[in-house]
Each structure stands twice: as structure tokens, then as C-alpha cells.
Amino acid sequence: ACLPSDGRVQAGITRKAQSLAAAWGAYCASTGSIVKSFISVKGVYMEAEIMSAGQPVPVRWVAPHNFTQHVPQGVDFRVMLTFFEFYETLLGFVLYKLYGGRVAPHN
What we know:
This protein is an alpha+beta fold. The chain has two helices and three strands, in the order H-E-E-E-H. It has a three-stranded antiparallel β-sheet, covered by helices on one side. The two termini are about 15 Å apart.
């Protein structure tokens, strides 16, 4: 969500990505699921244990630092937007299930 504002990515898509990230962070914070984290050059790596059928399932991710990214000219944003649409739907469904059928906050 820290891409340069040069018109290749619409502001609504950036806001939606920020909203999904905030809803995921709110879930992890409210349930106390985060068990590990460390800071690196690429960003903040985190691990949470999400309960599924009584068993903890580890989920790991990296949150990049809030610096505008340098994007090379050869990047095809149409491909990136296709992946975003897929992950937007996937994460929306996961959050829906995690929040017990209620709409996740920040959405």
C-alpha cells in the first residue's frame, strides 16, 4: 500500500489494501494471536497462531516499512491488480470466517 502516486494504481485500490491490512491487524491484536515478530531491512516480520479446529495454525507475513517503493518501469500493473483482486476476495472471506460471520472492522 506504499506505491508511488503516479497514476498506475488507483487510490481506491490502495485504500482497500490498507483496510484489509488494518482488519487483519485488528483481529490479531484483539485475539492476542501474534507470537513472534522481528524487524528487518524489508519490513516487520510477524507470526500469529490462529486457532482452527482446536489446533493453532501458524501464519507468517511481512509488513513493509512505510516508505514509497521504487517500481521499475517493466512492472506490469495489470498482472499485479489481478493478483490483488484474488487476494482481496480470499482475505475478505478469511476475515469473514474469523469474525464469525460478522463484517470485519475497517471494511
